[in-house]
Design a protein that fits this description.
heterodimer, A: ABC transporter involved in vitamin B12 uptake, BtuC, 13 helices, B: alpha/beta, 6-stranded mixed beta sheet, 3-stranded antiparallel beta sheet, 27% helix, globular
């Protein structure tokens, strides 16, 4: 399929374009699934970026590839493989003390070793299942084709459960993430929260992998959260921005992928990357302007604080 | 011990809690009877006797690696005592967490951490509550208003209003330390446990933060137990010091404890305490603890 073959090209009228896209049930499902995944990944990713657990997130994403390949090899739905391997991987990382926090080279080396081995296993499973080779690309780089209504329902229920759990632990998790020692002193169960969060992160990774592919999960996990945290230091606003950015890049990614022959993972990643670059540039600009203004405003602020 | 003198200076913020009156029966806020602690199979110290009264400022001193932070962790209930009896605010350690403000030993927040100082203070107020706050505007919620006012009050008390809305990673070490003291104070604690709060600050900030802690102790009647490796910045405010050596400890008034005789007896080697012309104390010949610095580096790891 390319530009010329598409039933009708991009018309620059968003209403007719969306009507045209949503005329296909598979595209409606793709938008539903994309929306659910974007919200979940943005929220979990926000905490992941704050906790500096990106390496753990990356590991979980990579682990989802052998999971899907193994499930396909067994002849069961790839979704089972995604969830089983990601949540299992999360529990393994949780069992390694302080892994994924960049604390100790030894532990991140251990995580990396297991991650590389499982990636290799994934390719073995693909090789064993000979007829599957064509699907490797979509496993690694994402696909929005053939998402069934049942899949959308499963994604929605799992995401709702994960977000519900995160809502319950949200505030103590934030406390434990930014100020572990004080949180421990206040009786916050820091270790248990860390395990629960990793399992939730595994769930989010398993969901996002099914849309962006296992190698580009970071497009939805890291980039919107990182961009939002560049733009504001207010936790609630930052979290909301992260969700908005994830939704925007997923939707535009889906539309772009519909009108062109390239995989959706590429578009979502590129758009998210552009947002991140813009966010960094905005912050740099703000800092420069702020510094320029500071000379005048500083005296007034100082006087106010003393009074 | 010394009574709580209400000291007021021009420009001081209004005190937010009336200190306990001298007539009130004085139960010790912290009481250690023959307390000892072990980390692994090594006894850090034992036989420590200490009473901290309401509104007293107590410093825990001693060489690096001797177990000063461990004492604070024991008072918090993170680490159990190996021997003796320990009571904190009349209860077993760990039971009175709501009434204790804690400032752990740390270097600083990561410069890239994008959370405002005021959010850090807020976590001290309600960070251990489950759930997330409903996005109700403060206009419609009395509780939110009360929380907002309390945070503003305590930020004002430590003099951090000018930078409390900046990301904490962008604040200087002294500014971060003030915000962390505000976090420890926000729940109006009866006891402050401070682990080397002056560490990593330059000299002028050390004096200012020490004065802030001393003022809070005097004016709000909060008992302070502070780990320090230099007694000089806090000397004017101290009621009592605990000097920990490998094995044992001595407690008492600074003038009695930080002397050539007492420290020589504690360490079992000749130690000399000198007084400089401006009144600063210098301890010469104090032995270093055996080079097991686990308690300095285990921060954030296993307790």
């Amino acid at each position: 399929m390319n530009w010329a073959d598409a039933s009708a090209g991009w018309s620059w009228n968003p209403v007719t374009d969306l009507q045209q896209i949503w005329a296909f049930p598979f595209m409606v499902n793709a938008f539903r699934a994309g929306t659910v995944v974007a919200v979940l990944a943005a929220v979990m990713g926000w905490f992941m970026v704050l906790r500096r657990q990106s390496f753990a997130g990356h590991t979980l994403a990579v682990v989802s590839f052998p999971g899907a390949a193994f499930a396909t090899l067994l002849g069961i739905g790839a979704g089972f493989g995604y969830f089983a391997f990601c949540v299992g991987g999360a529990l393994v990382i949780a069992a390694i003390p302080r892994a994924g926090q960049g604390g100790s080279g030894q532990e991140s080396a251990l995580t990396g070793t297991v991650q590389a081995f499982l990636l290799a296993c994934g390719f073995l499973f693909v090789a064993l299942y000979k007829g599957f080779l064509g699907g490797v690309n979509s496993l690694l780089f994402g696909s929005f084709l053939g998402i069934t209504t049942l899949q959308v329902a499963v994604l929605t229920i799992v995401a709702a459960a994960a977000l519900g759990a995160l809502t319950v632990i949200g505030r103590p998790l934030l406390f434990a993430s930014v100020d572990e020692n004080v949180a421990t002193g206040r009786g916050v169960p820091v270790r248990a929260l860390s395990v629960v969060f990793l399992v939730l992160l595994g769930t989010a990774t398993a969901e996002a992998s099914q849309i962006t592919g296992t190698l580009l999960v970071f497009a939805l996990l890291v980039m919107p959260a990182a961009a939002a945290q560049q733009l504001t230091a207010r936790p609630a606003l930052s979290l909301a921005l992260s969700v908005l950015i994830a939704l925007a890049v997923t939707w535009t990614g889906l539309i772009a992928a519909y009108y062109s022959p390239y995989p959706i993972g590429f578009y979502v990643t590129t758009f998210a990357f552009s947002v991140y670059v813009l966010a960094r540039a905005t912050r740099a600009l703000n800092t420069a302007v702020g510094r320029h203004r500071f000379a005048g405003a500083g005296a007034g602020a100082g006087a106010g604080a003393v009074a | 011990m010394s009574t709580v003198k209400p000291v007021t200076r021009p420009g001081d913020p209004v005190r937010y809690r009336v200190p306990g009156q001298a007539a009130e029966p004085r139960f010790p806020v912290v009481s250690l009877r023959g307390a000892g602690v072990r980390v692994g199979d090594r006894t850090l110290w034992s036989g420590v006797e200490l009473d901290v009264g309401a509104g007293e400022f107590v410093a825990v001193l001693g060489p690096n690696g001797v177990g000063k932070s461990t004492l604070v962790k024991m008072l918090l209930g993170i680490l159990p005592p190996a021997a003796g009896e320990v009571r904190v605010l009349g209860e077993a350690p760990g039971r009175a967490g709501q009434r204790i403000g804690y400032l752990p030993q740390r270097r600083s927040f990561d410069a890239s951490l994008r959370i405002r100082g005021i959010d850090i203070v807020r976590l001290g107020l309600d960070g251990d509550r489950w759930g997330v706050p409903l996005p109700v505007p403060a206009r419609f919620s009395a509780r939110r208003r009360a929380a907002r006012d309390r945070i503003a009050e305590v930020v004002e008390l430590v003099g951090a209003s000018a930078y409390a809305h900046r990301p904490i990673g962008e604040c200087s070490g002294g500014e971060q330390q003030r915000l962390l003291i505000a976090q420890a104070l926000v729940r109006d604690p009866e006891l402050l446990l401070l682990d080397e709060p002056l560490d990593s600050l330059d000299l002028s900030h050390q004096g200012a933060v020490a004065a802030l802690i001393g003022r809070i102790c005097r004016e709000a009647g909060v008992s302070v137990v502070m780990v320090a490796h230099d007694v000089n910045p806090i000397l004017p405010w101290l009621d009592r010091v605990v000097y920990i050596a490998e094995g044992g400890a001595v407690a008492g008034r600074p003038q009695e404890v930080i002397t050539t005789e007492t420290l020589s007896r504690l360490y079992g080697v000749p130690v000399e305490v000198l007084r400089t012309s401006d009144g600063r104390l210098v301890v010469v010949g104090q032995p270093e603890a055996p080079a097991v610095h686990t308690d300095r580096h285990a921060e954030g790891g296993k307790p």
